[in-house]
Structures are given as C-alpha cells and as structure tokens.
Design brief:
The structure is a homodimer of 338-residue chains. Chain A is of the alpha/beta class. The first copy, chain A, has 12 helices and 12 strands.
DNA sequence: GTGAAAGCGCTAACAT
DNA sequence: ATGTTAGCGCTTTCAC
C-alpha cells in the first residue's frame, strides 16, 4: 500500500494539509509558488491519494454496481461494455456482479447487506418478482433494467418488447411470410420477457389478419442453441410447416439456423429468421442474422441518467423509461423478399 | 446512505462497540444473551456495516481489479467470468477495467494513480512492452496474463502458445493435411501472441517434415471475421491451395469458415479449420469448430494464487506459470480423417 | 489564500 | 469476555 500520506507531502513542502489537498484537487486559489512547491513534494515522494480515505470523508465512492445474470452472454457483455463506457465518461467506475439468474444472488443484490461500497446500483433481475422488489427497502439508489420485474416504486429502463416483437413480425409479413414460428417459450421459465414478446407477436399477426396457430409457438427445455436446433428439427419432423421464425434471442436464432440447415431448409428462401438483441453473433452466422436491435447505448445512458438523479437525492416515485429499438436487416430476413 | 452506525447499535443494545463488532463478525466468545440483544438491536435499526470505513481501518479492500482489452470479446468475457467466480469464491469482488488495447489506458492501469481502491490487479496487457512494465514501480500487487509483455520482474500466467500451436498443427497433420494455412498475422499488430503461435506452427511443420511455405501465412488488416473471410477468399482466388487452416483466434476461424463457404469449399472435407480459445462461438458455427482450449479456470485460479501470495506480502522476483491447454475436437477438424 | 482541528465509521491493541 | 480508545488518511468547516 501507499505509505506516503497527505501529511507527509505537507511537511516536506512546509505547508498545511489543506494546501496540499487544494493542489491535488486543482483548486483555483492557490499561490503559484506554493503550488509548484507542493507539486514538487508530491512528485518527489510519489504521493498517491488514498481513495478509501477520501471516500470515508466525502461519503461518495465514485463507483456503481452493475448486476447482471451472466457476464459472458453476448447481450450482457455488450450491454456491460456500454454501461462501463458511459459510466467512465461520467467519472464512475463499475463493479460487475453476476447473479447467474439465481434467486439467492438476486436477493443479495437487493439486500445490500453492506453499505458504502457503491453510490448506486443498476440491476437486471431475472427471477425476482415485482412485489419482492417493491418490498425491499434500500438506501442505495437503484435502477432496474429489462422487464422481469416492474414495480411502480423503482426507476426502470427497457425497450418496448411488445412493439419490438410486432416490428419483427411486420418485417416478416412484409416479406410475404404467413406461417411464422415463435421460438420460443422456455419450459419452467418464469420471466416475463418472453411473455411480452409473445404478446407483440400475436398482436402483429392479428393486425395482419393472419390466424393464430398455437402449434407455431415452440417450447424449448433451456436457453441453449442446441435445444433450439432440436426443437426446430422436431417441429419439422412432426410435419409443421412454416416460412419464418421469430426468435426471442440471438442465441435461439443461432440454434434455429442450425436446425433449419440440418433439416435441409434454405434460409431465407424457404424460411426467414429474425433474432433478438443484435449482438455480435449476428454477423458470425451463416447466413448473417436479421435481429431486433435494442439501443444499448441509450439503455446505458438512460439508466445512468436516472441513477445519477437518484444519487443526487431525487426522491420521487419510480420513473419508467422506454428506449428506442430498431431492426437490423441482414441476410436471414432481407429487406427485399427472398 | 446508511445513517445507522455501529455506535448506534451499541447504545441501543447497551453494550460497547467492540461487542457489536464481535457479533457482526461472528466471533466465538460472546455471551449468548448479549449476542441476542445485539442482534435484536441490529435488526431493529437495520444496521449495515459501512465497508469504506472498515477498509480504511483494516487497510484491505477485498477487491481486485481485472484489466482486459475488451469486455465483450468472447475470450475475455469468458475469462472474466472464470476470474470473477474464482475471486468471489475467495472472498474478493472484482472490478473490471477495459483498456480497449489503448496504450494510454494500459499505462493508467500500471500507474495506479490512486491507491487503496483494490488489493491487487490482474492485467492482460496488449500494447505495453515488457520494459515499460518492468520500469513501473507500483505498490499494488500485480499479476500479468497473456504473453504480450513478460518482464522477469512480474508474476505472470499464460499457456504455452508455442506448444499449443504445435498441437494444433499435429492434429491437422494426423488428419492427413499437408498444406496448412496460418491465419493470421494482423498488419500493424505488435503483440507477441501471434509470433508465438506462428513459431509453434512452424516447429510442428518442420517436425512433420513438411516444407515451410511463406505463402501459407496470411496477413489480415484487422481482427474482424470479415477481414479473415476476405483474406481467405483472396488467397483462394489467387490460386493458393491448402487443405487446412490454423487460426489464431475463434473469431478468425468464424471468418475463415465464412470465406471457405463463399469460395465453395467444404469444411472439413476439403479444408479443415482449427480455432483458438475454445469460446462459446465454437458451437455456434457451421460446422462446429475444433479449437485450441486454454484452461481458463486454471488460468483464473493460478492468477489468483499468485496474486493472493503477493497480497500477503510475498516479495520474491517474478514467477512465471504455464497453465495447461488442450484441443477440443469438433466438426471442423474431426478426430477421424474427414 | 492558507492553517488547525474535528470528524467520516470502523478496527484492534490494550485494559479490565 | 467485554469495554476504552487511538488511529486509518482524507475532507472540510472555521478561523486567521
């Protein structure tokens, strides 16, 4: 640890701690001569301010926590990057906590059993229910991401999942597709994300005058591409016919692409595929993947806007912000009917 | 912020701060009656220890910094996860810093202009030279990852890149491949990683009695799959013949796969492909990707072993640890000659 | 414009 | 086994 302290510098320079502090903080009203002398002492001693001590004195940590399910899921790692960069632009450091979609870990985030570690928390819950969230009384500012739990009492940022799903279906319908699979519902999954997307899917079909067919809504056992590939192949084997797939996630789309290929179906000619999240995966697939694109940078900046207001003492009830989304068109569901 | 302090609890419970502290820390020698009374006071007041204050008093932060080039590169996000999980197992929190392979940012990591934020640093440099690293005098323990800069003075963990590249080539040779492309050298890239891998590639060829052909070593303008795809197609167009590709990175392999497909070559029948890092990408590609697999969990635990020793005061000169690697065989370069 | 001193909330050595 | 007290290094009124 750094053994040279503010007072050491002060003594060497023959000034008070206050003056050294002023120099460190680049305060305006310091006599140039003093400033030079102090700076010389700092350099000579190699003084580095102790952040922990500063924090204790000021009560601000300059750090925010980002709690996400998995750091190595493409969507979350890309989102983390956006948030980390935006935070750093605003002078904060980010500490990332992985919940692994675990109920206990999510509660731990909410609980914040220890205070004074971060000034605020950005949390993307998966398991936690709105009611539980609402009940938790915290003293560290909190902003929620995603749509898993939306208590009215807490600030919250998301894209309009219903509208986005609708846009995805509309794009497919514009391509002339009529039999559109939704992939998929995850067995035992209690998140509302899928529900919202499924709702938008249905709305768009109704809007287009396409009859709803429950058979077209596929269920998969888990979140892996392998399961999606298997589900698609099983559906085809069972005689289901379709000409498009709307996936709730790019990883699902990767699985769909694999399954369709194994089944000998051409994408996008026979079946068009739309993914979700517009992660880097979209350009790694064959064909490249059209995907619903949440504006991650806006998500990050909006979340930080809300959080900073809270950290400054804003006390109002929960604000809910919708962030724009778009659809990035690539080969798997091109702009011109394929 | 938490306004209830240790002393508030002590007063309410009618005991000293020490006793409260003992209860908080689950010390053994506390009279059961007192423990109950204190716990009741803690619960009633909703007391949460202030970590910053504890840190200032103990001098330990319980946090380590992980500095990597990009948080959303598959290899680094997976490695981050391993390190975060291992660190959490050992009672540390991790704060992730992105350098974006920027020289200035890398220097900032080394500089540690502010002390007392973390107990130690794990750093994967890209730009920084060994000499610069060696010259920096730091007071926070440091462990280096990767092979970009290997000063003798600093602890360091990596896989044997030369041996790993050799293993990759041997695998291809065992499949009967003789014309093996190395993909690739990145123009303007000054990292030594590629150099090591290229060396192992050459060694294995010599060992197998296969003549070296400089034409087979491809150069790409940057790290994107698109560039790799283009480079492969250009090579084919120029008349280069080959039956295998060893890639320095899974993302390169994704590009190679795309390029080969566009050129109408079948993988693995006509050309076998081996990637590097064994990231999740390997199962997303078509065909799935055989890849050199650094043992990321061992990388993480070894780095933390070394770091913890340093944090405990170990003073010796730099230790250099090699971590095992293997090759995960998938479709793109199967075990049985394809 | 600069100095002196009182905390920030906790830990740990020392005392009882 | 429990209480007392002196710091940890910095910031920040308040005087000068």
């Amino acid at each position: 640890m750094a053994r040279v302290r503010l007072i050491d510098v002060a003594e060497l320079a023959g000034v008070s701690m206050k003056t050294v502090s002023n120099v460190v903080h680049n305060y305006v009203h310091v006599a140039p001569a003093l400033r030079q002398k102090v700076q010389a002492a700092i350099d000579e001693l190699g003084y580095k301010p102790n952040l922990t001590a500063r924090r204790l004195a000021t009560g601000k940590t300059g750090m925010i926590a980002l709690a996400i399910p998995e750091i190595d899921h493409p969507y979350f790692s890309e989102l983390s990057r956006c948030i980390a960069e935006e935070a750093s632009r605003r002078g904060y450091r980010v500490i990332i906590e992985q919940t692994l979609s675990d109920t206990v870990a999510e509660h731990a985030v909410l609980q914040d059993r220890e205070a004074g570690l971060v000034d605020g928390v950005i949390f993307h819950p998966v398991r936690m229910q709105a009611l539980e969230l609402a009940r938790s009384q915290r003293d560290t500012p909190l902003v929620l991401l995603g749509e898993a739990a939306v208590p009215v009492t807490t600030d919250h940022v998301m894209i309009d999942n219903v509208a986005a799903a609708r846009d995805g279906v509309r794009h497919l319908v514009a391509l002339g597709r009529q039999r559109i699979v939704f992939l998929g519902i995850v067995a035992d999954d209690i998140t509302v994300t899928t529900t919202r997307r499924l709702l938008g899917y249905q709305e768009a079909l109704v809007e287009a005058g396409i009859p709803l067919d429950p058979e077209l809504v596929l269920t998969v056992p888990d979140f892996t591409p392998e399961s999606c590939s298997a589900a698609i192949q099983a559906a085809i084997a069972s005689g289901l016919t379709f000409d498009a797939v709307l996936c709730r996630d790019d990883k699902f789309a990767v699985g769909a692409l694999q399954g369709l290929h194994r089944a000998g179906l051409d994408v996008p000619r026979e079946v068009a595929v739309v993914g979700w999240d517009d992660t880097a995966l979209t350009s790694f697939t064959r064909p490249t993947l059209t995907s619903i694109a949440p504006d991650k940078a806006r998500l990050a900046s909006t979340a930080l806007d809300l959080l900073e207001e809270r950290m400054r003492g804003h006390q109002g009830s929960g604000r809910h912000r919708l962030v724009p989304h778009s659809i990035t068109v690539r080969e798997s569901a091109p702009a011109i009917p394929g």
